[in-house]
Amino acid sequence: MTATILDDGRRRLVADRVLLTLWVAGAAAVLLLPFASMAPNRLVSGQPVMLWAALLPWQAWTAAGLAALLLLSALATPLPRALAHGLTLAAAWGLALLVLYGIGTYAGRAVTPDMPAARVSLGSAFWVVLFCAALAMLDAFQRLKAGMLPQVLYAVATVGAVAGLFALDLFDDLSILREYANREDAFAGEFLTHLALVGAALGPALLLGLPLGLLARRRAKLRGGLFGLLNFFQTIPSIALFALLVAPLSALGDAVPVLKAVGIKGIGAAPAVIALVMYSLLPIVRNTYAGFAGVPAAAVEAARGMGMTTRQVLWRVEVPLALPVILSGLRIVTVQAIGLTVVAALIGAGGLGTFIFQGLGQYAIDLVLLGAIPTIFLAVTADFFLQILVALSKPEGAR
Amino acid sequence: MTQAAAFAPLRRGGGRGVLLVVLTAVLVGLVLFMEELEPLFRAWFPDLDNPLYRRETFLRLTLDHIVLVLVSSAISVSVGVAAGLFVTRRAGREFEPMVSAISAIGQTFPPAAVLAIVVPLAGFGFVPTIVALTLYGLLPVVQNTIAGLGTVPPATLEAARGTGMSPRQILLRVELPLAMRVIIAGVRVSVIINIGTATIGSTVGAQSLGTPIIAGLVGDNIAYVIQGAAVVGLLAIVTDMAFERLERRFTFG
């Protein structure tokens, strides 16, 4: 490995050092870290299981073969670069699915009729290999300078294949899915609560933030104070703001019983939504302001020259031109609100954070993951779709 | 630039400077003399038997909180700036798209979820909190180091090379000073997020200013909640304002 990286100018042995680095990291994880952990029941802590012990022989050999192909595509010879990147995309895809399939079948073999309570959890090598495979895919796409369409198709193929493995009940014996099966109804409820809290916060935040952003653009004097105040909110740690709202709202609920009847009380959704709105305002106002500030003066001038009214200029010229920046603000706050809602579980607002904090309280790691993994998935998915929306909102020439 | 224009930013910052001093004084006062406020909390919450958090002093909690943030931020900043420098040099340029992509995607992960995911790998307590804070804090630093170094105009670099500066001199005397404001902005984001996440760290067993908040939420004691939240909120705001001043010092032109 030492002699592989030569100076530029001389013939290089390694063409893709990023891929090589990922390969080395993945290989080191497989050799040093447990791939899964296996416990006879929930009370005993798990024993580490290495990859070669967990996989069936044909799976282990296929994994080794795919790893060899990935190493080959990192080398400068013999493959031409485009072919090598294609090979990376194929081999990394195969490896990721094989690892998923392997851990599912291992769990199926470990949970036998005489050991029905056996628990198989995902080990750190499992995560590292998946992570490195995903980054290898990303690296190949970056180097191919691939457009949006092939990447979306590839992503769809990957998600479809993983969904197929789920549909085959392959993962049902993994402990995280056992946790899920135990609280299937609660999970659906908390997932919807999570989405509802995010939605309930984004609505008012947009209704308040968009006019405020426009106002900041039109009235320069207001700008400093407004941004200062909103930054003030943004800076306060989430749990502190959530918690600080508990006191006044419980006092308000006690003082005005009608409010309490409609859900305005100290603990619950009301303080969570108010805090989420406060956090969401800064990015929305700032991006709305920046979007309008970025509209070329010449475009506004030309529109006025054509005889458009102020209202027409706003809706037909300024808003369309400012839209991509405003939508990037929406992207920031959506991702942020999905994350902050986790913390809202601590003040009894519900959402996926409920599982995380329950799990932390009971030292039930799988329960923690049952809350954490869907939250991350939700944030990344929202980010992905809003990114597409931002790209689509850009005027034809600027895409 | 005329004399008056040169001083304009200072004057504009003057009012905020006073605010910073006042808020810092309030913060220090709360941390040191929270006990003196017991009569106030007793009058405010007459139903509570114990309206003052006493399991630890607020000085201890604040110091623990600051240690969590300082240790993780020190690692994040040194590793993050080094990584940003590496991928903007010739030897590491190949890694730049990958590192940028990781720091952009990583920041969409909710900090609380990252903290929770580190627990199975590192156990409960101080260590997972430090690991989570460090990992999460890295991302804005890396991103802003790359962005900051990218703002240095090629003509400036050309001129520096033309005067016979070595790559090392160019880095230390031209690139880093010009990129410093953006890098500090990244450190600011990183530290503020870490102050917030360290608060949640109390749910995985790391003692911090979140400890009285969680104790208050669990035990239905709003006074504890207010005490913890007020101190940690002020700590975050004072830190943010201090960074704002530091950033302004590195604004050129």
Provide structural commentary.
The complex is a heterodimer of chains A (399) and B (253). Chain A is an all-alpha fold. Chain A has 16 helices and three strands. Chain A has helices at 17-32, 51-54, 57-74, 81-110, 124-144, 148-167, 175-182, 184-218, 220-235, 238-255, 257-261, 269-293, 297-305, 310-344, 353-362, 365-393; strands at residues 36-39, 47-49, 119-122. In chain A, strands 2-1-3 form a three-stranded antiparallel β-sheet. In chain A, strand 1 (36-39) and strand 2 (47-49) form a beta hairpin. Mean pLDDT of chain A is 86; it is low at 1-9. Chain B has a single domain (12-249), classed as MetI-like (MetI-like fold), CATH 1.10.3720.10. The longest helix of chain B has 34 residues, at 167-200. Chain B is elongated. The chains are: A mainly alpha (399), B mainly alpha (253). The interface between A and B is large, with 51 and 44 residues. Chain A: It is a multi-pass membrane protein. Chain A: It is found in: Cell membrane. Chain A: Belongs to the binding-protein-dependent transport system permease family. Chain A: The chain crosses the membrane at residues 18-37, 49-75, 87-108, 120-140, 152-171, 191-214, 226-250, 262-282, 313-332, 338-360, 367-392.
